[in-house]
Specification:
- This protein is globular.
- The protein has helices at residues 7-15, 21-39, 47-63, 104-111, 154-162, 178-184, 217-227, 269-284, 298-311, 313-324, 330-336, 344-364, 404-407, 438-451, and strands spanning 42-45, 73-77, 115-120, 132-133, 137-138, 167-172, 187-190, 209-214, 255-258, 288-291, 367-371, 386-389, 392-395, 413-420, 426-433.
- By secondary structure, it is an alpha/beta fold.
- The termini are close together.
- The chain has a single domain, classed as Amidase signature (AS) domain (Amidase signature (AS) enzymes, Alpha-Beta Complex).
- The protein is built from 14 helices and 15 strands.
Length: 459
């Protein structure tokens, strides 16, 4: 099926004139028209302008002027604004709002020849690990419609899994790229802080990261190389730009720490099975994988996150909850009212305590391997309330294992599929690197992808 080509394969076929950009885009649009009524991943379709771009891409391939993403359909997370298009963030409060600026990530995708054919759904204000809102409705997991694709980049994850885009963008403040990647059986990268430029004020929030999503590690690397690099609007954007090299997947001799629980997370059996399979796959590829213990607790992680969110993200939407509570979803209102026993400064102290054992661990190991989430997926219409996780009722965010690496914001993290759970939903693992060591993370992920049996794609 053309819609499930990798971006790398599609670009090669178009370069050899064996595939037309118009033909590819038509296949992706046809697939979207088939599955979107069930999946609901898109907030906006840009098919007419996309088709015009596809025709121009045909000329570029004929003329030998094709760019890295020439002719590739890319779905963009609605949170990332495009000048002149709606920027509603899943909220009735912002219904009809028109963006006055384009996000640097989108600008770079278009400049590289990428075709933005659709924009993808998020929860309200991108503040949940599932994707539904009063404005856009429920986005469902293509593998099993009873489950969520995750959040907040859930529309992007669902689109990739459903075959309605070849590449997609996400953003990650507590796992919002990696959670949908795991739930949807795709690949997602949380770059280290500053690697990919963002817009103020959240570019200054070290928990926040914009990044690439795709169905293969190579495609994620392709998109990462397009969107990374310094930008004049973002004071924390890093220079010089890191250009990921061609991946070999050669991980012989690399030392990898394995943690199944990151301290005391309650991890469900299907996730454990997938994580152990990933560890064995790396061993088979020549890496040295050893199980380790981390002294973290879920309570400690959530306390640090609450202090951070109360001081920054929650505070940013707090006034909206106070003035327009009746228009917000329950989960957005609850998030806006996040309270912490710790002040912002005390939260920073705790973040330092949390990072120290990870930093010490990564002096001895080249990377850490762990589950992305403790559960295979959340129910599609979960409202943010308590959820049973491996038999224990607690806050639903205890079902994800991503937040420690927003705290450790300079660590690059890739989520890669590890298998399928009994309910038909994928599971995933995180490859966590030393600070700013993106290349090792990508090489390990490439080795994992090559060694693990593929999970295919949903019908």
């Amino acid at each position: 099926m053309l819609a499930y080509l990798s971006a790398t394969e599609a670009h090669a076929l178009m370069s050899r004139r064996e595939l037309s950009p118009v033909e590819l885009l038509t296949a992706v649009i046809d697939r979207a028209e088939e599955v979107e009524p069930r999946i609901n991943a898109f907030t906006e379709r840009l098919y007419d302008s996309a088709m015009e771009q596809a025709r121009r891409a045909e000329s570029a391939f004929r003329n030998g002027t094709a760019r890295p993403l020439e002719g590739i359909p890319v779905a963009v997370k609605e949170e990332q604004p495009i000048e002149g298009r709606t920027h509603e963030e899943g909220s009735l409060l912002f219904k009809g709002t028109i963006a006055t600026v384009t996000h640097p990530v989108v600008t770079r995708i278009v400049a590289a020849g990428g075709i933005v054919h659709a924009r993808t759904a998020t929860p309200e204000f991108s503040c949940a690990a599932f994707t539904h809102s009063r404005l856009w409705g429920v986005t469902r997991n293509p593998w099993n419609l009873d489950y969520s694709p995750g959040g907040s980049s859930g529309g992007s994850g669902a689109s990739l899994a459903a075959g309605t885009s070849l590449l997609a963008t996400g953003s990650d403040i507590g796992g919002s790229i990696r959670i949908p990647a795991s739930f949807c059986g795709v690949v997602g990268f949380k770059p280290p802080f500053g690697r990919v430029p963002a817009l103020p004020p959240f570019n200054l929030d070290q928990y926040c990261h914009d990044g690439p999503m795709a169905r293969t590690v190579g495609d994620v690397a392709l998109l990462q190389n397009v969107i990374a690099g310094p930008h004049p609007w973002d004071v924390v954007s890093l220079r010089p730009k890191l250009e990921l090299p061609r991946l070999t997947g050669d991980v012989r001799g690399l030392r990898v720490a394995l943690s199944l629980t990151l301290g005391d997370y309650l991890v469900e059996p299907d996730v454990v099975t997938g994580t152990l399979a990933a560890a064995q796959a790396l061993r088979a590829a020549g890496a040295i994988v050893e199980e380790v213990e981390l002294p973290w607790t879920r309570k400690q992680i959530m306390a640090a996150a609450d202090a951070h969110f109360a001081g920054i993200f929650g505070a940013g939407i707090g006034h909206l909850a106070a003035e327009h509570a009746d228009l917000l979803t329950d989960y957005a209102r609850e998030f806006a009212m996040t309270r912490s026993e710790l002040g912002f400064y005390q939260g920073l102290e705790l973040e330092g305590e949390i990072y120290r054992p990870l930093g010490e661990l990564l002096e001895d190991y080249d990377a850490l391997l762990c589950p992305t989430t403790a559960v295979p997926a959340f129910p599609a219409e979960h409202d943010g309330g308590p959820l049973a996780i491996n038999g224990e009722l607690g806050h639903y965010m205890l079902g994800v294992m991503t937040i420690p690496f927003n705290i450790a914001s300079r660590c690059p993290v890739l989520s890669v599929p590890s298998g399928l759970a009994a309910n038909g939903v994928p599971t995933g693992v995180q490859v966590v690197g030393r600070t700013y060591d993106d290349v090792t993370v990508f090489e390990l992920a490439a080795a994992l992808e090559a060694a693990l049996p593929g999970i295919g794609h949903p019908a």
